[in-house]
Amino acid sequence: MPMKCPYCGSENVRTLETRDSPNNVVRRRKECLSCGRRFTTYEYVETVELMVRKKDGRIERFDLNKVIRGLQKACEKRPVTMEQIRDLAERVRQDLMMKGKEEISSKEIGDLVMKYLKNFDRVAYIRFASVYKQFEEPEDFKRVLQEVRR
Questions:
Q1: For a surface tag, which of 3, 36, 90, 150 has the fewest beta carbons within 10 Å of its beta carbon?
Q2: What is the domain partition of the chain in residue ranges?
């Protein structure tokens, strides 16, 4: 099935640039010849379909886009590029795949994101932590601020 433009749905798409990334990932920059918009795709080998066990016990497929969206929210209005967000999300996915398990917990995903964010952008780390750890009191922020200072 041919690639469709995520903006207009046209199949009239061409590849502008292909770049190999670490961890056996291929990055392709594409342009829609119908609407003129550009977008990036990532191609990687999926050896095992990674399943995620949610807090409530449900199981669903691992979705890299969910990780990216969470990072986008945490990094909003920060000096962070979309490429940096995608790279960070890809590192999380690679770490999860390296575990060799078919099922991981949503907690493992959140903990990995926190691990990378802590050294990447401290404000984004605190934002992500406030949602991930469900902060309810100002003391929750104090505790994480002390973690970041270490």
A1: 150
A2: 1-45, 47-149
Q: Is 54 exposed, middle or buried (0-12, 13-18, 19+ CB in 10 A)?
A: exposed
pLDDT at residue 149 greater than cutoff 80 = no
Contacts of 6 (CB under 8 A, 6+ apart): 39
47: confidence class by pLDDT, cuts 50, 70, 90: low
- Lay out the sheet containing 25-32: strands in order across: 13-21, 25-32, 38-44
Torsion sign across C-alpha atoms 32, 35, 39, 42: negative
Tell me yes or no: is domain 1-45 CATH 2.60.40.
no
The one-letter amino acid at 34? S
Nearest to 99 by CA among 34, 50, 32: 50
Across 22-141, where does the E strand assignment appear? Answer: 25-32, 38-44, 51-53, 59-61, 103-105
pLDDT digit string (tens) for 64-85? 999 999 999 999 999 999 999 9
Mean pLDDT of the chain, nearest integer: 88
